[in-house]
């Protein structure tokens, strides 16, 4: 991707049990540019983050589900053990104009650093009040 021709947006997350909050976020991210790249966490990484019973959907299923959304242009499955350098390499490869994050992102400082390396902006998308994947999982007794 060359920045001069296409305004590339990069974002990432787990996207395990897709819900309205995810759709809202991804639509807002796409509205910032022309081409939306979504990096998703691997199954192993989600187990580390969310617990033994997760993910509910495999990385292949999550990738296919996200790819079916008309506002998502590309989905990348991240490696199991991503290092800080791996994230830097990803950002360099994708070469986004904007990295879209949820307001209050716990690793915002690292993402700002990565954005600066390629001359990208960070855009924080407001978090809307909706049920989270964790809440849905508990409600459905999936945990």
UniProtKB/TrEMBL annotation:
Pfam families: CTP_transf_like. Residues 10-135 form the Cytidyltransferase-like domain. The keyword Nucleotidyltransferase applies. Coiled coil: none annotated. One of its GO terms (molecular function) is nucleotidyltransferase activity. The keyword Nucleotidyltransferase applies. Transmembrane segments: none annotated. PANTHER family: FAD SYNTHASE (PTHR43793). The lineage of its organism: Bacteria, Candidatus Woeseibacteriota. Keywords: Nucleotidyltransferase, Transferase. This is Glycerol-3-phosphate cytidyltransferase TagD.
């Amino acid at each position: 991707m060359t920045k001069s021709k296409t305004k590339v947006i990069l974002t990432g997350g787990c996207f395990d049990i897709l819900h309205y909050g995810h759709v809202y976020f991804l639509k807002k991210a796409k509205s910032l540019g022309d081409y939306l790249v979504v990096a998703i966490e691997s199954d192993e990484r989600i187990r580390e983050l969310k617990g033994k019973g997760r993910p509910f959907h495999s990385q292949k299923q999550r990738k296919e589900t996200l790819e079916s959304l008309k506002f998502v242009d590309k989905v990348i499955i991240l490696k199991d053990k991503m290092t800080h350098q791996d994230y830097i390499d990803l950002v360099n490869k994708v070469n986004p104009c904007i990295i879209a994050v949820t307001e209050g992102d716990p690793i915002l400082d690292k993402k700002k650093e990565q954005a600066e390396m390629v001359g990208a902006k960070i855009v924080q998308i407001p978090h809307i009040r909706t049920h989270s994947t964790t809440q849905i999982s508990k409600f459905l007794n999936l945990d």
